[in-house]
Fold:
Amino acid sequence: MTDNTQLSGNCPIERTLSIVGGKWKWFILFILYKFKIVRYSEIKVRLPRIAHKTLSQQLKDLENSGVIHREQYNQIPPKVEYSLTDKGKTLIPMLELMYQWGKDNS
Structure:
């Protein structure tokens, strides 16, 4: 990082936060990292304070950014599974650092 980095416009930090910013996205990514392939209901159980509408929107945002993969099975009852994409897996080092920082500073 250089001293003349501008924190607006095309800043890499701004780009990262536009994809994974917000209260819930890192929690969702951590769940997918830890459990690999997860159904919507499993995510909801692990994040009981998140509203259904918010969870659905966060999942859509992450999918649209190419960070998670959504696999829909056309069956009765409907089944949808989420997992990290290769792009999403590149966030794992940051997840691990955030986890460790929180553990060390609690």
In short: The mean pLDDT is 91. The CA atoms of residues 72 and 80 lie 4 Å apart.
